[in-house]
Amino acid sequence: MKTLQKIILFFLLALPSIGATQSKEIPFTLDDRDRIIRTEQKVEAVKTEINSRFEAVDKQFAGFRSEMNARFDQLFNFLWGIIGVFTTMMVSVFGFAFWDRKLALAPVKRENLKTLNALRDFAEHQPKLREILKNAGLM
Fold it and tell me: Is this structure's pTM higher than 0.90?
């Protein structure tokens, strides 16, 4: 117990001296002030250099942007041309198919009409055939 009291007493006596060493004031000299001023000047010089480089890069990219816009305009015009060509092709193919179908069916319709007229003429003498044609709606 006595050793514990001695240790506590030692720390209580040593505590003010420890606090005094940490709260010691550090003097601010003219050299420190000059160093701070030089550092601020260097920081400003670096800032202006960085700004000038950014401006140069912006000028360079401004020309690049206008070239890219022109290229995109060319690309879009080319794509519109391709779309126009394919649309024209599709309309032509469907038009030709419709025209061909109509042209190919015309002789078949004439042939069917001849056959129907022949059946009607024959139905005038055949009552059973006349009844069949009436039920089919062809008479």
Answer: no
